[in-house]
Every structure is written in C-alpha cells, then in structure tokens.
Amino acid sequence: MSQLFHGGDLHSASKVFARPADDWLDLSTGINPHSYPTPAIAAEVWQRLPYLQPGLMDAAASYYGPHPCLASSGSQPIIEILPQVLRALGNTKAAWLADVGYQEHRHGWSQWGPIKTYNGLCVEQATQQIDSAMANDEVGHLVIINPNNPTGTLFPVEQLLLWAQQLNHGFLVVDEAFIDTQPTASLLSQTLPNNLVILRSVGKFFGLAGIRLGFTFASPNVLTALQQHIGPWSVNGPAQSVAIAALNDSAWQQKMRQQLVHQASTQLQLWHQPLLQLGASLAAQHELFRSFAMPPELARKLHLSAAEQGILLRPVDINSGKSLLRFGNIDLSQAKFLQRCQNWLNSLHTLR
User: Among 39, 62, 87, 133, which residue's CB has the most CB atoms within a 10 Å radius?
Assistant: First the structure.
C-alpha cells in the first residue's frame, strides 16, 4: 500500500537537502508554532498501562461540550476505519468527498467502495454539486473537511445539518481539525443527529501534534464499533496528562485565539506582495495557514528554492494548470527565521 505524502517530514527533507532537521523553518503544516506549555508528567504515568483517565473525558466535555465521544491516538486511526464501520452501519452507495483536502479521507473510503468528489475550492460550487446529488439520491455518505486545509472553505452549520437530515441511511462525517480558532462554527455547538460523526484534533490549535490525540463525536453505536477496532490503551498516558491540562486551560485558549487572530494579517503580509508579483493569488487565509494559487511549475520552483534556504513549504497540485502553495504560521518572535524568510523573498526576483 502506498503512503501519502504529508507536511512536517523534516527527516526526509534533511536527507534531500542536506540540512540538519533542527535547522529547518517548517511551514509545511498548519500546526500552531506557539504550543501549549506541557506540564510535568508524574513518574507513574510513564510506568502504568494507559487506561483512560476519567479526567480526560471530563476535560473533553468541558472543552468540546457534553457529547458522546471516543479518544484515540489522533484522528488518523479513526479516518482509516470509519469507512468500513459506516458502510456496515449505513449503506454501500458512493461516498462524496472534496477533490482537494486531507487525502487520507479519500484514501480510506476508496478501500471500501465507490467514491465521488465535489469541488473543494469553492463552497458555492460544492453546495450546488452536493445538493444535486442529494436530490438524485446519489450520496451514500458525505465527508466534509470544515474548514478545509489547504483551501480554507467553510460550510455553515445550518447547511451541514440539512445534509445530515437528507442522507438516506448514510452518515455525514465532518473533520473539524482546524476549527478551534472559530468555535462558534463547530457542529459541537448544536444537538447532534445520530448520523453525524465529528472528528477533532488536539494537535493543531494546541500545537501538540506529537502527543497524537484526537476525539470522535458520534452516536453510541458508532463509537462502540470504532472502539472494537482500535482496542484498549489507544491513548498513551503522557498524552492524556498533557491534554487534561490543555483542554481545561480556558485562559490560555482565549489568549491564543486572540493572538492568532491578531497576527493573521501580519502572517499574510509577510508573503502576499512578493507572491502577487510572481503571478500568484491568495486562495485561502486561516488563522493557522494561508494558501496561494499559482501554476504548478511556479509552485515547484518556489518549494525548491525555499527548501534550499531551509524553509519547508507544502505544495498541493490541483490540476495540470493549478497548484496551491501553503504557508503555515511562523513564530514572529524568532528574528533568525524572519530574516531567513526575508532573504528568500528578496531572491525571488530571479524567478520572474
């Protein structure tokens, strides 16, 4: 089975570009560079089997809301087994997914039956396509990445709930990995229908991708089926301890949301004008990333030239004439890396 390429693979980048892993400015993910300050971990947490701590589920309820949920080692294990589980509980008709977005969803569903795609770049076009397919009873299950990374598309809660209602013995899966900066846009603010599955990640907003922790919100029968697949001890003890502190720290959460919103324009301005001068256009702006549309050849040149200066970006091919180049957040307090970015941008005139 082939492995999909993801951002953040500094060790592979180091081999290709002969640069130590700790000397990269990694902008290839949408992970918050201002990570939650990890607390001290008690010795017994490292020594004992990691049975689920009651404090973890209490913290999850406090942060996400009092919905039935399942903790797992990130969202990835759930994304891999959801298609099998939901097709067994629902129907075997085609699953509809965005043509651009986190491709592990598409990879997983394609292993378990037919898939069709809708426009991942434009909410209006996607809505028209999905509505038409719904009217013709062509949608078995619907997968929405909300907001989509790298395209930034965000569907309103009311539209998602309507689609869930329209599905005929099918499930709506909504990946909310990047919604923490916009909590009112989350479906977890609503009463959840039985055919809705919501995926949340602790790694992105909290900057804690390394602890591998995610939560799945769904009806009890779906959660039971998922639990049977992932087995016991699916979340390690240190991850639970860190997450309990992070999910309960409402003061840090509020401050970080304000900081990310406040810095969003500065993060964009760093790249915007130089890339516009090369013919790129802004395609998405999120508090944790921004994407620029450009011809594939330009995206490849920019990706390569940035990497040669120790800046790792994430190119995403859309079609033969269009690619996206995604820029994660830079820590604006790091003068060394800011200067590295400026030096790279100053060199781009050679690409015109």
Answer: 87
Q: Output Rg (C-alpha) for the chain, integer angstroms.
A: 21
Phi first, then psi, for residue 60 (nearest 5°) are -65, -40
Place of tokens 């404090």: 55
Tens digit of each residue's pLDDT (9 = 90 or more) over 140-158: 999 999 999 999 999 999 9
Q: How many CB atoms lie within 10 A of CB 82?
A: 28
Mind listing the pLDDT tens digit for each residue in 287-311?
999 999 999 999 999 999 999 999 9
Q: How far apart are CA 310 and CA 305, in angstroms?
A: 9
What b/e readout covers 14-25, taking b as 16+ CB neighbours within 10 angstroms?
Answer: beeeebeeeebb
Residue 222: CB partners within 8 Å, gap ≥ 6? 85, 86, 89, 171, 197
- Residue range 214-270, pLDDT digits in tens: 999 999 999 999 999 998 999 999 999 999 999 999 999 999 999 999 999 999 999
Rounded-to-integer distance, Cα 243 and Cα 317, Å: 34
Structural domains of the chain, with CATH: 10-36+251-351 (3.90.1150.10), 43-248 (3.40.640.10)
> Residue 199 corresponds to which amino acid?
L
Enumerate residues 6+ apart whose C-beta is below 8 A from 282. Answer: 268, 272, 276, 290, 291, 292, 293
| Cα–Cα distance for residue pair 265/214, rounded to 1 Å | 29
Bridge partners for 117 per DSSP = 97
Note if the pTM is more than 0.90.
yes
> What element of type H or E holds 145?
strand 141-145
